[in-house]
Amino acid sequence: MSNNSMQSRRVVQTVELGAPAAQVWDLVGGFFTLHQWHPDIVKTEVPANQTEVHAIRRILTFPGQPTTTEELLTMDNIGFQYRYKWHAGEWGERIKDYFAEIRVFETEMGRHCVMQWSSTFTYTEDALSEFYWNGFRALQSRFPLTDKV
To answer: Does the pTM exceed 0.70?
Structure first.
């Protein structure tokens, strides 16, 4: 019996950050700014044909890997969340049916928040937790928790 069979998966990761939700959202809430805070993304680009299609898409460049195109499904800047899906590229040919969401929740007004990154996909293993945590660690460095007085 093989452990390499395709399975539907759900990954939900969270991190507590030492900044207000609005401040964290100012950094992570831009669909085209992922490369500004996630160390595994070299650049985020707007597709050349963006004005010719109704969908909002981004092209992500990872070190030494083919690009991936993702499509924005919903954006809620007041509620600090957006949803997106894989649209094109080799990665999504292997990891099927990828849908993800980034959310930021206020936990201690003006001091702390929790960021949640979740996804559903079909693959042989958890293909995303490590990637999410690489981004979270960068955010923890930028928004460290301070000791409560």
So the answer is: yes
